[in-house]
Amino acid sequence: MTGNSGLEGVVIGESRISSIIGAQLTYCGYEIDDLAENAEFEEVVYLLWHDKLPNAEELASFKKELYEHAFLNDDAKNFYKTFVDKSVHPMSALRTAVSLLSHTDPNAEEQGEAATLTKAIRIQSKIPSIVAAIARTRKGLDVIDPDPNYGYAKNFLYMLNGTEPTEVEVEAMNKALILHADHEINASTFAARVIVATLSDMYSGITGAIGALKGPLHGGANEKVMAMLEEIGSLDNVDDYIHDKLAKKEKIMGIGHRVYKEGDPRAKYLKDMARRLTEESGEPELYEMSVRIADIIKEEKGLLPNVDFFSASVYHSLGIEHELFTPIFAVSRTSGWIAHIFEQYENNRLIRPRAEYNGHTNRKYEPVENR
Ligand SMILES: CC(=O)SCCNC(=O)CCNC(=O)[C@H](O)C(C)(C)COP(=O)(O)OP(=O)(O)OC[C@H]1O[C@@H](n2cnc3c(N)ncnc32)[C@H](O)[C@@H]1OP(=O)(O)O
Ligand SMILES: O=C([O-])CC(=O)C(=O)O
């Protein structure tokens, strides 16, 4: 293994949660397309946590629990006002807010299966409410409570915007949440597993995972894709812009993947969503620019779009502010992080790899005045 292998290809253990074979992604044995076409996000969360799809009764009770725990108390809402403003990135605010959630959980330090599941429901329920509260607090708007008549995806959009979302918007958000829910041992999931493998608590695992997801080489790429599209401005400018970036050996955000070399199955799905939604929102050029960017990079570097590439124009078309793209990813991925935390606890061993030492040897301490 070289000094900067980034653990490429290293298998860190077994997992039942998601599988990547070639360009095929499955959750607990179900094809991602099958789930995105047919399921509700809540069913997928249940699947990831329990390794089976819920029956009608289980789903109804799970949805009820998710709704009941989705409320934020006034202390939390008021506290957000003390650290959330336009100068703070919503991912940083989310990281703080999730850490803060543990302070208001009297059982935060409790271990064991039942206590862990209770924390899981609390976190998964509250995370869309927190993202929406952060988004609204940044704009000086009141925080909106969830509506008992809405499911997870619909309530998330409702709490963000304060208006009932359209069916198209709900369907797009539901699919996006499903497509981002889990992805084997990606960097943020690995971070979560490393944290809880010390037998630290779930809040610590999720807080750390949010920190890892934030980076532009991981989940933070979706926001950067949108920034790039805005910087390019029009289809006519794409070729020069991309050739210039590649000549300078700069990375194009939303392109390439550590594992998928034959294409990311989520990207083709999101590409189709982006085509339809940009047409409907009257900005088809965003899609055309994205397709042209992807074509050039495929031709020049043999690299293909990842999940973050087309999700940018999907979220933009839904009217979502760009700094919320990665927090939305976090809302969805929390379900996968939690599934991996359960799995880690079930068969835990401290994760502690080694490094090959390549530093100085045989140095002797010099008093400060001699240095
Ligand atoms: C949800 C997710 O996390 S999906 C990934 C989101 N991240 C991005 O979109 C950021 C852009 N992409 C990248 O940085 C990379 O493709 C990664 C980090 C995702 C995967 O990285 P790896 O497969 O390990 O490739 P690595 O970063 O080592 O690059 C290998 C080579 O491909 C090139 N390359 C990889 N991705 C890109 C890119 N997006 N644009 C241009 N060149 C690229 C590198 O410059 C490097 O070239 P070189 O060998 O000539 O130096
Ligand atoms: O698997 C990865 O390395 C990154 C990724 O696509 C994800 O987390 O969804």
Low-pLDDT runs of 5+ residues are none
Supply the CATH architecture of the largest domain.
Orthogonal Bundle
Strand order of the largest sheet: 1-2-3
Q: Would you tell me the overall average pLDDT?
A: 96
- Strand-residue fraction? under 5%
Pfam families: Citrate_synt (PF00285)
Catalytic activity: oxaloacetate + acetyl-CoA + H2O = citrate + CoA + H(+)
Family: Belongs to the citrate synthase family.
GO cellular component, one term: cytosol
Q: What does the model show?
A:
The protein is mainly α and 371 residues long. The protein has two domains: 222 residues, Orthogonal Bundle (Citrate Synthase, domain 1); 97 residues, Orthogonal Bundle (Cytochrome p450-Terp, domain 2), CATH 1.10.230.10. The protein is 57% helix and 3% strand. The protein is built from 16 helices and three strands. Strands 1-2-3 form a three-stranded antiparallel beta sheet. The mean pLDDT is 96. The site of acetyl coenzyme *A (ACO) has 19 residues, from α15.
